[in-house]
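Researcher: We plan to redesign the surface later, but first we want a full-length starting point. Tokens attached.
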């Protein structure tokens, strides 16, 4: 294996020195490319929303905190794959206000070849309210994402090692999964906030097609209800289920049964938005590099712990030594070396 010594990897992004490369396989990432408007509520949503009065709900939360950032599930995942030294192939769409976002992605070495600019639409926008207990209420406008056709990736197929289909327009997610199935690309399915929009038959088809399914606890509750399954028999549907549980860590279910792993603790919690996407970036790269499941999850958890320490969803840089040291401190073992071999 030859260590990459390009200026990109030695420069400001700072990629982990344990990452080695044979021939770098691309990671197909499809998901939203969005602007995130973040609002902070100094209190608990649980104290202001009364279940017995939900039918007449009309509440307003005073937010002394406001910020606007680049985000979106697809862009967040692709960004952190690149930050780790991977080669994401991002498929999505932006609107007439997305030019500077595309420039930012290109500046970080992420191809925008398959991200059209739709001049009659705006870029997707998420408005995310977070309370002092890290609970979130969000509204999402898909904008251009609902109008972009699935691109022709036939010329890219031989360079793609794995794909993750994460939340964006539901039809785009279905097109992506269908293309992966037809092309024989191993798929990680991340239904996310769109899980309630799929029909049971669609969720069954996507789950059975996938190498792994990843969801948070709420999304898993919806998924298992739609599939009519439990942790005990999910392996009949998919080889690997990963359920993220915030500060309580991660559980996963595979052929050997149910496993749990604690969270990787951050030095401080500023905003949890985007941490799950960073987790997915590390997890997918680990799988693509043929790591054991637990090591792949450890990489994702360690990377995610840095994202909760910032305001926004995209780490500007990454000290690779600190990343590896934090993972070792949390889990007692060193991470393996990533190898993106085709």
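Model: Full-length starting sequence:
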């Amino acid at each position: 294996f030859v260590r990459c010594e390009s200026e990109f990897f030695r420069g400001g992004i700072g990629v982990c020195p344990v990452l080695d490369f044979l021939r770098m396989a691309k990671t197909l990432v499809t998901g939203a490319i969005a602007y995130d408007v973040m609002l902070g509520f100094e209190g608990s949503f649980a104290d202001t929303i009364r279940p017995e009065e939900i039918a007449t709900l009309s509440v307003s939360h005073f937010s002394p905190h406001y910020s606007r950032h680049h985000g979106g599930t697809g862009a967040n995942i692709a960004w952190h794959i690149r930050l780790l030294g991977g080669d994401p192939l991002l498929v999505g769409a932006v609107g007439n206000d997305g030019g500077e976002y595309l420039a930012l992605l290109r500046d970080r070495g992420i191809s925008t070849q398959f991200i059209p600019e739709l001049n009659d639409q705006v870029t997707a926008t998420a408005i995310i309210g977070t309370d002092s207990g890290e609970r979130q209420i969000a509204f999402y406008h898909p904008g251009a994402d609902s109008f972009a056709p699935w691109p022709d990736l036939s010329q890219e197929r031989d360079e793609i090692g794995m794909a993750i289909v994460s939340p964006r327009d539901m039809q785009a997610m279905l097109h992506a999964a269908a293309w992966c199935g037809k092309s024989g690309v191993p798929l990680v399915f991340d239904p996310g906030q769109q899980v309630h929009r799929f029909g049971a038959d669609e969720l069954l088809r996507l789950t059975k097609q996938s190498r792994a399914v990843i969801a948070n606890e709420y999304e898993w509750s919806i998924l298992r209800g739609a599939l009519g399954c439990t942790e005990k028999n999910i392996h009949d549907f998919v080889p690997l289920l990963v359920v993220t549980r915030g500060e309580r860590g991660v559980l996963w279910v595979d052929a050997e049964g149910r496993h749990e792993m604690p969270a990787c603790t951050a030095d401080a919690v500023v905003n949890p938005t985007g941490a799950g996407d960073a987790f997915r970036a590390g997890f997918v790269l680990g799988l693509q590099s043929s790591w054991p499941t637990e090591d792949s999850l450890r990489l994702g958890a360690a990377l995610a712990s840095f994202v909760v320490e910032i305001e926004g969803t995209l780490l500007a840089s990454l000290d690779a030594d600190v990343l590896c040291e934090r993972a070792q401190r949390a889990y007692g073992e060193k991470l393996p070396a990533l190898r993106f071999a085709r």
